[in-house]
């Protein structure tokens, strides 16, 4: 999903995809000029917690970029819930707040007010569990029950920002 038609090249071949902004690798590229090539998400979160303004700003901007996309989805589909997952969301309110504020600002009020935004309890296991569940479904071994503790719990999520992000394209 394109968020900046003149943005950075994406691994999918397009430019300015959401993945180049909130995917872990794209996000880190924004900060590696300053903090070096070995910077990882965990380091960003730690610096942000200790008040580093660049890291805090980068997280806020990522939340805003995602919020703009979620607001459009909200206007089109009016979902009841958006579930986010991936290492960036370990930042908690530092990223979720700007995501929420952007949705509230840009989406139709009636759609935004009913929307719940939450972190996936599966987090980084979501992709693995989803892949296993697909394999189980394909093998028609439903008698084993679903993974992740509940019906549908291992299904893909919206707005992910994992290492192998699902937001690209
Ligand atoms: Zn892309």
Biggest sheet overview: 2 strands, parallel
Main-sheet strand order equals 1-2
Helicity range of the residues? 40-55%
Catalogue the ligands.
zinc ion
**Share of residues in strands:** under 5%
| Total number of strands | 2
Q: Helix segment count? A: 7
Topology as H/E string?
HHHHEHHEH
CATH architecture tag of one domain: 2-Layer Sandwich
CATH class of one domain: Alpha Beta
Average pLDDT score: 85
Tell me the Rg in angstroms.
Answer: 17 Å
Rough outline? globular
Distance between the termini: 5 Å
Kindly report the CATH topology of one domain: Nucleotidyltransferase, domain 5
CATH level 4 superfamily of one domain? ATPase, nucleotide binding domain
Q: Runs with pLDDT <50, length 5+?
A: 152-157, 160-169
SS-based class = mainly alpha
What does this structure look like?
The chain has 169 residues and is mostly helical. It has a domain at 19-122: ATPase, nucleotide binding domain (Nucleotidyltransferase, domain 5, 2-Layer Sandwich), CATH 3.30.420. Helices cover 49% and strands 5% of the residues. The chain is built from seven helices and two strands; from the N terminus they run ααααβααβα. Strands 1-2 form a two-stranded parallel ribbon. The radius of gyration is 17 Å and the shape is globular. The protein starts with 18 loop residues before the first helix and ends in a 31-residue tail after the last helix. Mean pLDDT is 85; it is low at 152-157 and 160-169. The structure holds zinc ion.
């Amino acid at each position: 999903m394109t968020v900046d038609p003149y943005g950075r090249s994406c691994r999918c071949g397009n430019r300015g995809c959401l993945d180049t902004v909130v995917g872990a690798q794209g996000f880190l590229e924004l900060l590696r000029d300053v903090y070096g090539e070995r910077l990882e998400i965990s380091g960003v979160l730690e610096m942000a917690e200790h008040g580093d303004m660049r890291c805090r700003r980068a997280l806020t901007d990522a939340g805003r970029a995602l919020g703009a996309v979620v607001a459009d989805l909200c206007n089109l589909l009016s979902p009841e819930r958006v579930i986010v997952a991936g290492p960036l969301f370990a930042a908690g309110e530092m990223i979720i707040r700007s995501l929420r504020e952007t949705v509230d600002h840009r989406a139709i009020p009636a759609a935004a007010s009913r929307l719940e935004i939450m972190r996936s309890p599966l987090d980084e296991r979501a992709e693995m569990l989803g892949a296993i569940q697909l394999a189980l479904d394909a093998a028609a071994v439903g008698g084993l029950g679903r993974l992740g503790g509940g019906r549908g719990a291992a299904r893909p999520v919206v707005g992910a920002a994992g290492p192998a992000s699902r937001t690209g394209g």
